[in-house]
Amino acid sequence: MMTRTSRPAAHPSRRARAVARTAEGERAALLPLLLAAMAFLALALLPGLARADKADGEDLIARAELTLAKVQRHEDLGPYVRAYLKRAKAILIIPQLLKGGFIIGGEGGSGVLLARGDNGQWSYPAFFSIGAASIGLQIGGQSSEVLLLVMTGNGLTSILNDKVKIGGELDAAAGPYGAGLDASTTTNLDVDILSYSVAQGLYIGANFEGSVIVKRDELNADYYGQPATPEAIVLDGRVANPQADSLRRALSEAVR
Q1: What is the DSSP secondary structure assignment for residue 50, as one 8-state letter?
Q2: Domain map (residue ranges) of the chain
Q3: Neighbours of 139 (CB within 10 A)
Q4: Distance between CA atoms of 85 and 251, rounded to whole angstroms?
Q5: What are the distances in angstroms from CA 147 to CA 22, 102, 203?
Q6: Which partner for 83 in 110, 185, 192, 254 could form a disulfide, CB atoms 3.0-4.6 Å apart?
Q7: C-alpha span between 147 and 197 (Å, rounded)
Q8: Closest residue by Cα to residue 107 from 47, 52, 157
Q9: Where is the Ysc84 actin-binding domain (predicted)?
């Protein structure tokens, strides 16, 4: 009787080499996409990271005030923004967040951060940029106006200290609206940031997962005429620029 013999098992080292070659091939295939995504993110942030001057800061603050007014006037969002702003530690206003891409996409923009002190007064603004890159099926572009309400002390400290990633060091959620206002605004949402985004008058429920917030030291120095960290600006009050007083008043009026 003929007996069937089984084939010898592949040598462990041979199998390991095959797995390693497969993994190496996958990494090689993904590398161009990852590099392209990083390049897109750099381009998205380029307007925020390019050399700026005092006039750029003044323009950004003026547009931030317009964005704040526009979102407050929004029929659906306005009451919620004002209610949550009364509880917020700070606000980051981004007058123009650009988003777009084809397969590889990204978004980016610059904004101003103001914190509310124990006396209820709003600080002078510090300048920041925000951006993110992504890989996936996507096409087209979009421009939106964004309010990021910083609801916790941890959120404010993380943003002030250094570059911070939403979804990593910070928890974020799209700001609620549409339900009963009293019930929504008295609920503990347990997040560091609430976001309200508007594009062409329509609310976008984005939580900005994966976005990176970066301070703009050069623009801060140009706007205030001396080097100043975001902490020195919004917490310590070591510098001031009267041009921003109109935005500070608008925030004070919003929480009355």
Answers
A1: S
A2: 12-254
A3: 9
A4: 9
A5: 45, 26, 11
A6: 185
A7: 6
A8: 47
A9: 132-254
Residue 83 has pLDDT above 60, yes or no: yes
Tens digit of each residue's pLDDT (9 = 90 or more) over 86-120:
999 999 999 999 876 555 567 789 999 999 999 99
Which amino acid, residue 179? Answer: A
Closest listed residue to residue 157, CA positions, set 193, 195, 121 = 193
Angle, helix 78-85 to helix 245-254, in steps of 10 degrees: 100
Structure tokens at 185: 């605004």
Could you count the other beta carbons within 10 Å of the beta carbon of residue 183? 9
Q: State pLDDT tens for residues 135-175.
A: 555 555 678 999 999 999 999 999 998 789 998 889 999 99
Q: How far apart are CA 41 and CA 168, in angstroms?
A: 18
Which pairs count as long-range contacts for 152-157, CB under 8 Å and 24+ apart, including other chains? 152/89, 152/191, 152/192, 153/89, 154/192, 155/89, 155/90, 155/192, 155/193, 156/89, 156/90, 156/115
Residue showing tokens 């301070």? 215
What does pTM read for this prediction?
Answer: 0.77
C-alpha count within 13 angstroms, C-beta hemisphere, residue 108? 24
Q: Quick one: pLDDT band at residue 36, thresholds 50, 70, 90?
A: very low
Res 213 pLDDT > 90:
yes
**CB contact at 8 A, 19 and 10:** no
Cβ-based burial of 231 (10 A; exposed 0-12, middle 13-18, buried ≥19): middle
